[in-house]
Amino acid sequence: MLVVVVAVLFGEHDRLVSTPFGMLHRFLLGGWYDLVVHASQKIMGKTCGAGLRAVEEEACGRPNPLLQFLYLGLVLGGFHVANVYVLPDLVAEDTGALALASVLPETANPFHPETASWALPSLVSIGLLLFCMASFGDPGVLTEANCAVKRKEYVGDGVVFPVDDKHCRTCALRRPARSKHCSVCGRCVLRFDHHCPWVNNCVGERNLMSFLAFLLVHFALCAFVCSITALHLGARFSATHSGAGYGGLSASARALVWLHFCFARHPIESVCVVMTGVLALMLGAFFAYHARLACLNLTTNEMFKWEQVERWEEEEQKNSGGGRGRRTWAGCASDAWDSATFRGRARRNMYDVGCAGNLAEIFLGRPKRRGRR
Ligand SMILES: [Zn+2]
Ligand SMILES: [Zn+2]
């Protein structure tokens, strides 16, 4: 599972791109579907392949609630499992609540059964509310009414955005810097970050705050469910396997007994631990990446643009005989972990007004700085 998480998050990095992690990354993020299409074409003919490509276009190229339903299924299903299989059996001695008892009062101890019984529904409710806000809230759509004002707020830096506003032929509007036309939704969005299929909405100027909160709360929810379920399983295992018979087994035999206990006797709780653990790692990494971008007043879209600019600069340097030039960085997500690249881009990013100012812009909706030309 850890291999899958590493492959998904870092497989695009140029140090991993040609390793098995890179191959697994490409397979998981679309390669498997190409294989299905290829195999279907061979077996059932070209019409089948074309049909599958049409399904892909419908599912990924147009707004649709497919992943929203999947999200609701996962959250409500996970909540049901925790409610039916974990919470009723929790006792303070089992869950590790005692370890925190000397530090935290009972009501603030998340592992105490009584606290868990209200903390879990609260986290799920807040998560669903944030999901609705990120899904159905206005991401900051560019309209005829706000176009003139926004063009004054967002001026081009002359590097990743031209100083003169671009004209969007689809929306028939002059588009200010930092905005982008979303090909899935068919509209221009201010301070465009990316289109998120999980919320079936663009993430932009007006819903970035709810999107960040959505990621953080779901990270907390998954980590919490994973922890209490794992502690509960561990305690149940210790209670039934503490005899001398188990103690005398070899390490590999103990591992087999443990696996049998988890996946044969408690399969639902075990799958819940694995799934929420993987999701917590991914959501945590995704939140950290977006939080870092927010602190630097950069967007995911701009990270791609900076990557392009750096490639062009490297090419130019090579062509002018400047030697190897600066190295290129493949993969926006992987760049989050490369401090040198991040700092380099932040230094050249004219929209950066310092961490506090950048966060105020997102969370307090403070009027945008006009930028410098
Ligand atoms: Zn447009
Ligand atoms: Zn969109």
From TrEMBL:
Q: How does it sit in the membrane?
A: Multi-pass membrane protein
Q: Which UniProt keywords apply?
A: Acyltransferase, Membrane, Transferase, Transmembrane, Transmembrane helix
Where is the chain membrane-spanning?
A: 69-87, 118-136, 211-233, 271-291
Please write the reaction equations for the catalytic activity of this protein.
L-cysteinyl-[protein] + hexadecanoyl-CoA = S-hexadecanoyl-L-cysteinyl-[protein] + CoA
Give the organism, scientific name. Answer: Chloropicon roscoffensis
| Membrane listed as a keyword | yes
Q: Name one GO molecular function term.
A: protein-cysteine S-palmitoyltransferase activity
Enzyme category, top tier: transferase
- Tell me the ranges covered by the Palmitoyltransferase DHHC domain, including all copies: 165-306
A biological process from GO? protein targeting to membrane
Question: Which family, according to the similarity comment?
Answer: Belongs to the DHHC palmitoyltransferase family.
- Which protein, by its recorded name, is this? S-acyltransferase
Question: Entry's InterPro entries?
Answer: Palmitoyltrfase_DHHC, PFA4/ZDH16/20/ERF2-like
What's noted about domains in the record?
The DHHC domain is required for palmitoyltransferase activity.
Primary localization:
membrane
Instruction: Cite the EC number.
Output: 2.3.1.225
Compartments where located: Membrane
> What is a single cellular component term in the Gene Ontology annotation?
membrane
